[in-house]
Model the fold of this input.
Amino acid sequence: MRPVIGIISNSYEMNDQYPVFAAGTMNTEAVAHVCRCMPMIIPATPKYGTVEELMALCDGFILTGAQPNVHPSEYGHEETEAHGSFDRDRDALALPLVRACVEAGQPVMGICRGFQEVNVAMGGTLHPEIRELDGRNNHRMPPDGTLAEKFELRHDVEVSEDGPFHKIFGAKRVFTNTLHGQGICQPGPRVVIDGRADDGTPEAIYIKDAPGFTCSVQWHPEWNTANDPVSRPLFEAFGDAVRAFKSARTDR
Done:
């Protein structure tokens, strides 16, 4: 059987009254066709099962993007209007899941909010609004346009020489799509900022001395993954890591 990748979902109200857990099909497409693994959408709450049960069920995890932000109390900051909306159930699931996966060497990849979750889980903090910082650009999704226009590539990210992202991409400078309002303020003690946008905004991280795959990105590689020269190798590397983890676990 193919390895299973758990995709952390988000909570929504469909038609403004029917609560659902959902994840974008671009995430499931990337997992199924580029990672070549089985996608499984995970409800964004700890109410239905433990982190240990999820880790036994899945071989790796993707922490997806989302409109709600990590609550600032999770990194010792006061809540302000600039922090936007929150999803406390997802906080309660995702943050301990990240820490447990890092410890166990179980592959985990954060995307956008997921990137921020990894930093917070590992002891880091966030800026509520990157565009308000001196010298920073507006990294938010444009409010108008088609989906393709909203997800189009917008800026370069430069990664470290011979770091994990350089090895994955085969290049030190890559062109990405930027769709986020928040960003890293202080990286956690083991969080390595391996890639930055031209304005200095952290865009690629990994966890120092982690035994498994921990590469996470602030942009959205799930968009057009199969055809994008940056997104495809990232998801392929993640899929390879998940297969290796599953194989090692099966051999025990």
Summary: The chain has one domain: 4-251. The domain at 4-251 is CATH 3.40.50.880 (Rossmann fold). The longest strand covers residues 191-197.
